[in-house]
Amino acid sequence: MAREDRRPTSERTRGPSPEDRLVAQNRRAGHDYFILETYEAGLVLRGTEVKSLRSGKASLAEAYATVDGSEAWVLQLHIPPYEQGNRANPDPLRKRKLLLHRAQIVELKEAVARKGQTLVPLKLYFARGHAKLLIGVGKGKKNVDKRHAIAERDAKREMDRARRGSRG
Length: 168
Fold this sequence. Notes:
Elements: H1 9-13, E1 22-25, H2 27-32, E2 33-43, H3 47-54, E3 64-68, E4 71-75, E5 96-99, H4 102-113, E6 117-127, E7 130-140, H5 143-167
Antiparallel strand pairs: 1-6, 2-5, 2-7, 3-4, 4-5, 6-7
């Protein structure tokens, strides 16, 4: 007899978690920066941009975030035009506003004011039907730090290989 799903209907029909609805991820961010803190921000988008994101098209490769006055913005976030859209498709690289609480914007402004820290977009995904951008306060890594991280990763991989080899 199959086990009955006892979760509430809303949880059963909600679908995959935000990680399953990932649109884009900035993999270089973890390599180039120490991520000190992360914030989840909403995005102000136009209609065809949402459709383009739902089809899984976006690039965070050269994107960065800034705080101007009391507003946070993401720049160079590439969302290509929607194929079935018309001439009203917005510019793919336009400046997009980030939706954050005022206290979070103040925290980000203070973090960026500190020497060597910047705002780095990490992930773009859908959560509860809304486009979200995970931004991190990052401190740039030096080449020595990058080499150290690569050496640690290689050592861990070798230990895993050795462990798997001894089981067989």
